[in-house]
Amino acid sequence: MPTSQPVLSVVVPMYDEEEVLPIFFERMHPLLDGLGIAYEVLVVDDGSRDKTAALVTDATADWPQLRLVRLLRNSGHQAALSAGFRRGRGEYLVTIDADLQDPPEVIADLLATARDKDVDVVYGVRSDRSSDSWPKRTTARMYYRLMCRLVGKEIPFDAGDFRLVSRRVVDAVNGLPEDGRVFRLVIPWLGFPSAEVAYVRAERAAGVTKYNWSKMFRLAFDSVTAFSAAPLRLATWLGLLGGLLSSGVVVAALIIKLAGRSIPGWTSTVLAVGVIGAIQLLCLGLLGEYVARLFQSSQRRPQFLVGYDSLEDPGHHSYAEAIEAQETDQR
Ligand code: UDP
Ligand code: MG
């Protein structure tokens, strides 16, 4: 393994992927060699129970750029990506699934786009999802709609975890103190200049999906709770609504009582249920508001990230030049 910094790190999380490995090596190896740059392939073995780790170790014999990082136990796809971000040494870092659903040939396009357009993030965006099953497509669609709202930013629709980021982004992500990060939300949220490359997603090359329903729910749940305290505040709104409704019920119950049409005991029961219910929900909601504040401060996300500083740019290129260029444009 070369010790100098590679240009490209390809991070591949793997969980029980022994079936796909032979095809993976066969396709990746010549392709990455063909790029003509120094690279490393960082396989993060997410606590596989099959022969994944052993097969990767064997393969390092005739592929020196291959590197294996093993997690102690199955920690999930996003955690494996976090490990890759920490360990990857490249100037650029690409994350890709092991199952070859995202064609590795696109890696060259991602890199070229990053260099040509001088951006820090290049998203691989699926231009066609017909290879995914119907339930997967529908749930994915719902997920992206909701996430766009929560992050409050354009998050690239149908971008999974196939993307290239620069060292600046890797450092920014590693500097985030929060746990349980969802990369496809955190990276757009950081706000680095970005571009997209469209590609057609293929079928899984071998084996079956490693994302079961419980893992999909986990991802959706982490995504919502990492960006929104709205669920905590649900009780506040229900409490206000309950209060409004129960004041109507109180008036109605009193009128019925005064008209002498009520069964004994009914009025007091209705009043108690309505009023106490509303008070309880309101108090729960208040608790939620405080928990939400604690939660937000405990995330300790940076308030901002600096994109340019003239002090760090002694020749005053980039920004000054950009302004100058703008002025000449206008002339
Ligand atoms: N994966 C992982 N840990 C897990 C589940 C999945 O590292 O607990 C990896 C898996 O090996 C694959 C990637 O995450 O490289 C995406 O998983 P998969 O292709 O099964 O998901 P799908 O494409 O069906 O959403
Ligand atoms: Mg897949």
Small molecules in complex: uridine-5'-diphosphate, magnesium ion
CATH superfamily of the largest domain: Spore Coat Polysaccharide Biosynthesis Protein SpsA, Chain A
Residue-averaged pLDDT: 86
Helix and strand element order: EHEHEHEHEHEHHEHHHH
Q: From the 3D structure, determine the CATH topology of the largest domain.
A: Spore Coat Polysaccharide Biosynthesis Protein SpsA, Chain A
Properties at a glance:
seven-stranded mixed β-sheet; alpha/beta; Spore Coat Polysaccharide Biosynthesis Protein SpsA, Chain A; elongated; binds uridine-5'-diphosphate; 2 domains; 331 residues; binds magnesium ion
Overview of the molecule:
With 331 residues, the chain is an alpha/beta fold. It folds into two domains: 8-227 and 301-323, Spore Coat Polysaccharide Biosynthesis Protein SpsA, Chain A (Alpha-Beta Complex), CATH 3.90.550.10; 230-299. The chain has eleven helices and seven strands. It has a seven-stranded mixed β-sheet with strand order 3-2-1-4-6-5-7, with helices on both faces. Helix 2 (52-59) links the parallel strand 2 and strand 3. The N and C termini lie far apart (54 Å). The mean pLDDT is 86. The chain binds uridine-5'-diphosphate and magnesium ion. Magnesium ion is lined by residues 97, 99, 101, 204, 209.
Give the topology.
Layout: E1 8-14, H1 21-34, E2 39-45, H2 52-59, E3 66-70, H3 77-87, E4 92-95, H4 106-117, E5 121-128, H5 134-151, E6 159-166, H6 167-174, H7 183-190, E7 194-200, H8 213-227, H9 230-258, H10 266-299, H11 319-330
Parallel strand pairs: 1-2, 1-4, 2-3, 5-7
Antiparallel strand pairs: 4-6, 5-6
Helix pairs in contact: 5-8, 9-10
The structure holds uridine-5'-diphosphate and magnesium ion.
Residues 97, 99, 101, 204, 209 line the site of magnesium ion.
